[in-house]
Amino acid sequence: MSVLDHFLNHLQEPISPIIDFDGALEDIGLLDLSPANVHFSERDYASTEALTAFIASEKKRSGATILMGGYNETRNMYRRSHLFDQNLNAASTAEEPRNIHLGIDIWAEEGTKVYAPLAGKIHSFAHNNHFGDYGPTIILEHRFSDTHFYSLYGHLSVSDLEGLYEGKPIGAGTVLAHFGPAQENGNWPPHLHFQIILNLQGFKGDYPGVCKESESAFYLQNCPDPRVLVNF
């Protein structure tokens, strides 16, 4: 049994919705940003403005107010930032792009509230202020007995980092953050990158959200599918 499964099997409280959603009034659509989507090409991620327009068109086409997807998805759009040319492992010599996405993305309006799905505490936080990066980022630690894991929230608002401190307790259902604007969130259309991490490997306020295909077996094992904690 995995650490995450052990934790969830002993959970004493319900998983809180990660964002507000009214199923009677809203729809969630799946967003495919992989090469398999013939309607998504290089011109659609050539700039932040182009990607924003594509996201808006996908919402309109699907009739959805919220779009979601991306776990273990191959994405060419990270070519837009040299950040993803950097190796995660200093010993790596593989000449290949980082293009396997390790979390899920939830695309909605700027300012959308982000709630903690589980109780935990602030492990670390940072403003990863590079083009294509997470922007403001918060990592929570969740612990049960002798097991623990982490959840990462990226592309937030700068103001969400105010008043935080490591070890600060966070209750399930607490407003943790908000979807940040492009000028703050790493130059992306407003969305939340949500990721589960079993071993942070010494990272603080950051952890890779995209890896090379040749390294994906390790990273996908260390970052299991986070949809188990997305409760709408």
In short:
This protein has 232 residues and is of the alpha+beta class.
Please provide a written account of the structure.
The protein is 12% helix and 26% strand. By secondary structure, the protein is of the alpha+beta class. It has one domain (3-86, 96-229): Glucose Permease (Domain IIA) (Distorted Sandwich). It has an eight-stranded mixed sheet. A two-stranded antiparallel sheet has the order 3-12. It has a two-stranded antiparallel ribbon with strand order 5-10. The model has no long low-confidence stretch (mean pLDDT 92).
Largest sheet: 8 strands, mixed
User: What's the number of domains?
Assistant: 1
β content, as a range? 25-35%
Question: Span between N and C termini?
Answer: 26 Å
- Mean pLDDT across all amino acids: 92
Anisotropy-based shape: globular
CATH topology: Glucose Permease (Domain IIA)
Task: Give the ordered list of helices and strands.
Answer: HEHEEEEEEEEEEEH
Radius of gyration: 17 Å
Report the total helices. 3
- Would you tell me the structural class of the helices and strands? alpha+beta
In spatial order, strands of the major sheet run: 1-2-4-11-8-7-6-9
Task: Please give the CATH class.
Answer: Mainly Beta
Q: Percent range for helical residues?
A: 10-25%
Q: Note poorly predicted spans.
A: none
CATH architecture field: Distorted Sandwich
Regarding quaternary structure, what we see is: single chain
Write out the CATH superfamily name.
Glucose Permease (Domain IIA)
Number of strands: 12
